[in-house]
Write a structure and sequence with these properties.
This is Putative PP-loop ATPase, YdaO type. Keywords: ATP-binding, Metal-binding, Nucleotide-binding, Transferase, Zinc. GO terms for molecular function: ATP binding; metal ion binding; transferase activity; tRNA binding. It comes from Nitrospira japonica. The protein is α/β, with parallel strands linked by helices. It has one domain: HUPs (Rossmann fold, 3-Layer(aba) Sandwich). The chain has 13 helices and 10 strands. A 6-stranded mixed beta sheet has the order 5-4-3-6-8-7, sandwiched between helices. A two-stranded antiparallel sheet has the order 1-2. The protein has a two-stranded antiparallel sheet with strand order 9-10. A hairpin with a 4-residue loop joins strand 1 and strand 2. The longest helix is centred in the first third of the chain and has 19 residues. The structure holds iron/sulfur cluster and zinc ion. The site of iron/sulfur cluster has 8 residues, from helix 6.
Length: about 300
C-alpha cells in the first residue's frame, strides 16, 4: 500500500477518503482538516488567544499539538477531577506534554484541582448533591473552563470533540428529538453574551481513529483508558452503532454529520434567534456573577448543596 500523495510506503489507510498516507502526508492531511474547520466555521484568526480544554486523552492533546504546529497562540486548562489513580495518570500525561512540547513553543498550562477548589473529588461531590457523577462533572467543567477563559482574557475556548463524538451526540439528540440540543449542536458557538466565552471544536472533521494514529505517529503519549465514570454511558453505545455502520459503509458518520451541518446552515437566522434567546434569558448569577438563566447559577447551587450538611 503506497501513499496516495507521494507514492512512498503508506502507514495508514483512510477508507472514507479513498486514500492512504505516509507519516508526513498524513500529518499534512490532519493539519489541513483542522485549518479547513477553523476557516469554514470562522472559529478564530491568527492573532486569537485560544484556551484548549485538555484531559490527557488523545483528542485534546492532539488538538493542542496541532494548533501549536499551525502557529496559533494556544494555552491549555486541565481540570483534575480527583478520580483516584485515573486522574493522577491523566494529569501526568498533560504535565509531560506541556513541559516537553508546549512550553518550548511558548504555551502555558493552567490547572484546576477539584479537590482543592471545590473541597472534594467529583464522585464525593456527586454523592453529596445526589446527582449523577457525569452531570456534576459537566456543571463543574463548563463553569471552570468558562471562568478561566474569561478571567485570563482568552478569545475562544477549544475542545477536542471529534467526528465520532459529534455524530454520536447527533444520533442521541435525533433519537430523542431533543430540539433545544439540536439547535445548539455546532462546531462553533459564539460568545452570545458578555461573560460567556466563544466555544469551538476544531477536530470535528477528524475521527477518533485518525486522532489516535496522529498521536502514535507523533509520539504524543496519552491516557488510553476512558474515564471510569463513562462506563455504561449511552454515547459509547451510539459510537458502537455508528462504527458498525461505518465498517459496512465507509463515510457514514461524515455524511450524517455533514448533512446536519448543511441543513442547520440553511436554516437562516436560527443561530441569530438562539443568540437573541440567550441574550434575553441570561443575567449575572447573584453569587458569582457568571451568566445564568436563574437567580443563582447551577454551579453555585451545586456548591451550596454540597456544603450544606444533610439532615437525614
Ligand atoms: Fe466527567 Fe463523566 Fe466524562 Fe468522567 S465520564 S470526565 S466523570 S463527564
Ligand atoms: Zn454562580
Amino acid at each position: 500500500m503506497n501513499c496516495t500523495k507521494c507514492k512512498t510506503r503508506a502507514v495508514i489507510k483512510l477508507p472514507r477518503h479513498h486514500a492512504a498516507f505516509c507519516k508526513d502526508c498524513f500529518n499534512g492531511f490532519v493539519h489541513d482538516q483542522v485549518a479547513k474547520a477553523v476557516k469554514s466555521q470562522k472559529m478564530f484568526g491568527k492573532e486569537a488567544r485560544i484556551l484548549v480544554a485538555v484531559s490527557g486523552g488523545k483528542d485534546s492533546l492532539a488538538l493542542w499539538d496541532i494548533l501549536l504546529k499551525l502557529g496559533y497562540r494556544a494555552d491549555a486548562l486541565y481540570v483534575n477531577l480527583g478520580i483516584g489513580s485515573y486522574s493522577e495518570r491523566s494529569h501526568e500525561k498533560v504535565r509531560r506534554f506541556a513541559e516537553a512540547i508546549a512550553a518550548p513553543l511558548g504555551a502555558a498550562l493552567h490547572t484546576h484541582t477539584v479537590e482543592q477548589e471545590e473541597g472534594a473529588g467529583i464522585r464525593e461531590l456527586a454523592m453529596l448533591v445526589h446527582r449523577p457523577t457525569c452531570s456534576t462533572c459537566g456543571t463543574i467543567k463548563r463553569y471552570q473552563f468558562n471562568r478561566a477563559a474569561i478571567e485570563h482574557e482568552y478569545d475562544v475556548m477549544a475542545t477536542g470533540h471529534n467526528l465520532d463524538d459529534e455524530a454520536a451526540r447527533l444520533l442521541g439528540n435525533v433519537l430523542h428529538w431533543q430540539e433545544d440540543y439540536l439547535d445548539k449542536q455546532s462546531p462553533s458557538l459564539p460568545a452570545s453574551v458578555e461573560g460567556f466565552a466563544k466555544k469551538v471544536k476544531p477536530l470535528y472533521r477528524l475521527t477518533e481513529r485518525e486522532l489516535a494514529a496522529y498521536c502514535v505517529l507523533n509520539k504524543i503519549d496519552y491516557i488510553v483508558e476512558e474515564c471510569p465514570m463513562a462506563q455504561g454511558a449511552k454515547t459509547l453505545l451510539y459510537k458502537e452503532v455508528l462504527n458498525r455502520l461505518e465498517t459496512e459503509s465507509p463515510g457514514t458518520k461524515h455524511t450524517f454529520y455533514w448533512g446536519f451541518l448543511d441543513r442547520s446552515r440553511k436554516e437562516t437566522g436560527s443561530q441569530a434567534t438562539m443568540e437573541q434567546k440567550d441574550r434575553t434569558a441570561l443575567h449575572p448569577c447573584q453569587t458569582c456573577g457568571q451568566p445564568t438563566t436563574a437567580e443563582i447559577c447551577s454551579y453555585c447551587k451545586l456548591m451550596t448543596r454540597a456544603k450544606t450538611p444533610s439532615v437525614s
